[in-house]
Q: What sequence folds into this?
């Protein structure tokens, strides 16, 4: 049995809605989700959704004291009036405090993993809080030098060498040291959190056709291949660099990658999002704890209604639970 911390995200978005829909019904699970958010806000949202849910305040109860009959809320004080669907910079401090509390209490081992609901970076910055994203903030709180963003479903895992930077900056961002660090984190995570003994990682090239032997860019020859060659000599199992346009096509081959490493955000993520949007989990690798997230945004147009789909939150929570059952940290 595990306790999973769930940060409820932007209070004007669908975070509270999907938490209620995903976990408000009385179901036995292999884990207890504890929702971080305002108890009063959740009561109001449940009334608006016309969902009958028994909301109870969580005060550090142990596993034996937690009932599946309730939706447990780690209450966060909140005195800002919020209308679902209308984002407000005045909620920025609450959103960040809720997120940070869930992370810090996971780091302290009160929880076995943390799952995050969607937030709005623009709203948080408008509220006077410098914020570039969940991934960067997680690294700061955990005092971790390098983390890796990965999206996964039941079929494939796609990690990113670079995340939210302009495309023109990617070539200079992809260095020998960075790729070495990213691939080591990815390899260790596959072993320690998915129990894959000798994971096969397929690395995508940066340029079309993986540089075409240097005729369409030399990053593959100068940086990517030397990193792969060096790591393979150290016992890793890496293929590449391969052309991104065919890398994900594995029909009629016995070679199946356990994970793919894309060089930039929109090189790898359109593939997995086209395959199964709404059933994908965003995972941060390289942290001293497990963090998963939904694969969608705040969806303000659906907030306060029953239209928001809770599938991604359920999938992210299940994956956090399964990862917590096999995790091994040095």
A:
């Amino acid at each position: 049995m595990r306790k999973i911390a769930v940060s409820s995200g932007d209070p004007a978005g669908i975070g509270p809605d999907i938490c209620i829909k995903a976990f408000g019904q009385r179901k036995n699970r292999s884990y207890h989700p504890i929702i971080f958010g305002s108890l009063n806000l959740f009561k109001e949202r449940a009334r608006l959704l016309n969902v009958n849910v028994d909301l109870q305040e969580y005060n550090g109860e142990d596993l034996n004291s937690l009932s599946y009959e309730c939706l447990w809320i780690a209450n966060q004080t909140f005195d800002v009036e919020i209308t679902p669907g209308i984002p407000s910079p005045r909620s920025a401090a609450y959103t960040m405090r809720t997120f940070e509390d869930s992370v810090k209490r996971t780091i302290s081992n009160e929880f076995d993993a943390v799952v995050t609901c969607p937030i709005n970076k623009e709203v948080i910055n408008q509220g006077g809080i410098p914020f570039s994203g969940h991934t960067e903030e997680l690294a700061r709180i955990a005092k971790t030098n390098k983390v890796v963003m990965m999206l996964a479903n039941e079929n494939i895992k796609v990690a990113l060498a670079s995340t939210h930077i302009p495309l023109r900056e990617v070539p200079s961002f992809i260095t020998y040291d960075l790729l070495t660090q990213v691939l080591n984190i990815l390899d260790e995570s596959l072993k320690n959190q998915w129990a894959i003994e000798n994971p096969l990682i397929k690395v995508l090239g940066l340029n079309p056709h993986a540089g075409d032997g240097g005729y369409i860019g030399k990053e593959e020859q100068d940086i990517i291949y030397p990193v792969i060659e060096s790591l393979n000599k150290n016992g890793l199992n890496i293929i590449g660099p391969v052309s991104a346009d065919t890398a994900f096509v594995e029909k009629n081959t016995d070679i199946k990658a356990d994970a793919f490493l894309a060089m930039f955000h929109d090189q790898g993520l359109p593939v997995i999002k086209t395959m199964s949007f709404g059933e994908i989990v965003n995972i941060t690798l390289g942290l001293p704890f497990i963090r998963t997230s939904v694969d969608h945004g705040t969806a303000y147009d659906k907030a306060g209604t029953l239209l928001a789909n809770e599938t991604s939150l359920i999938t992210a929570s299940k994956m956090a639970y399964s990862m917590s059952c096999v995790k091994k940290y040095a």
The longest strand covers residues 31-37. The mean pLDDT is 92. The two ends are 23 Å apart (CA to CA). The CA atoms of residues 129 and 242 lie 40 Å apart.
